[in-house]
Design goal:
Elements lengths: L2 E5 L4 H7 L1 E5 L9 H4 L9 E6 L2 E8 L4 E3 L15 E15 L5 H4 L22 E4 L1 H10 L14 H16 L6 H11 L3 H8 L17 E4 L8 H5 L4 E4 L1 H8 L3 E3 L5 E3 L5 H6 L13 H14 L7
Parallel strand pairs: 1-3
Antiparallel strand pairs: 1-7, 2-6, 3-4, 4-6, 5-6, 8-9, 10-11
Helix pairs in contact: 5-6, 6-7
Length: 313
């Protein structure tokens, strides 16, 4: 777990309410910036302190690593920023009583990094900082002033809202494209919800939920194996990149709490409570039948990049 400080004077409202951080990859001169490069270092579970108008106003937990993404809609803010940027999904908690770090800079001073610190020795903010890494003691002091503790933020699971935020940014970027026509654009957007051509294509390969056996399509979700926001245009619509899943199974699969081997062996994450699995009647299921070579290519991605490693069923 690492600790970060984000300056959000311009983007606080958009980012905290939207559940994300975003920065360009390079500054307006086209050069790399260490505070933008830090975005690529964030991992799920990292703690983020939100600084705006001289106050720490919110605390967030990263819900996943940084992804390449186009610039979100910030209104008139950031017109000079490149559209090529980093996006990090974050679940923010607003501070009940925001605190001003300058008021207790004497306690923080010993923990300021010698280079790339977010604050000066006098407690004023350093100009040009977006995302800066801070030490655990530095973060602990601020959390204590907020009436919080580091322990309260350990081992949080990514929220549905954070995943949705990542998809929303990817969809905004898609809607702004001019290299595809409106019909294709509509189908790509529909595929995010498991609808349109994508759903029809999935039904050519899958006829029922692999775990529950439910075959009535009105009760099944066409779920991408490789997450929609990471897919190329072709992958977004490829029926081999999908499974028909009952809603509760879809949630487990999307969160990386289950996956499948190519031969159909069920994989369960150690983060999936055994009582939940048993309550849904899945204890006896160890294999759901093999997958095609085309499906297996997508499952390899899911096992590597989505599944939270655990024990096989």
């Amino acid at each position: 777990m690492r600790y970060w400080w984000v300056n959000q004077n311009q983007t606080y409202k958009h980012e905290v309410q939207g559940g994300f951080l975003w920065s360009p990859k390079r500054n307006k001169a086209g050069r790399r910036n260490p505070f933008y490069d830090n975005m690529a270092q964030v991992e799920a579970g990292d703690l983020i302190l939100s600084f705006c108008d001289t106050m720490i106003k919110a605390v967030g937990v990263a819900q996943g690593p940084a992804e390449s993404a186009g610039k979100p809609n910030f209104g008139s803010i950031g017109d000079q920023w490149s559209d090529d940027g980093w996006f990090v999904p974050v679940e923010f908690q607003l501070a009940e009583t925001p605190v001003k770090p300058k008021d207790f800079i004497a306690e923080l001073a010993a923990h300021l990094e010698p280079k790339y610190a977010p604050l000066q020795a006098n407690g004023n903010g350093n100009q040009g900082v977006y995302l800066a890494e801070i030490s655990e003691p530095f973060a602990a002091i601020i959390l204590d002033k907020l009436g919080l503790s580091i322990a309260a933020f350990v081992n949080g699971e990514p929220s549905d809202d954070a995943v949705q935020a990542g998809d929303e940014v990817a969809q905004q970027a898609l809607q702004g494209r001019t290299d595809i026509g409106p019909t294709q654009k509509e189908q790509l957007i529909l595929s995010r919800r498991g609808q349109g051509i994508f759903r029809s294509n999935v039904r050519l390969n899958e006829t029922a939920c692999r775990l529950t056996g439910v075959s009535d399509p009105q009760f099944l979700i066409a779920s991408h194996i490789k997450p929609w926001r990471h897919c190329s245009d072709l992958e977004k619509l490829d029926g081999c990149n999908g499974l028909l899943l009952s809603p509760h199974v879809d949630k487990l699969f999307d969160r990386g709490l289950i996956s499948f081997m190519d031969d159909g062996t069920v994989l369960k994450s150690i983060r999936l409570p055994s009582d939940v699995w048993a309550a849904w009647g899945f204890d006896a299921i160890v294999n759901v039948g093999g997958f095609s070579a085309e499906q297996a290519a997508y499952l390899a991605y899911h096992r590597t990049d989505v599944f939270k490693q655990g024990d096989g069923a």
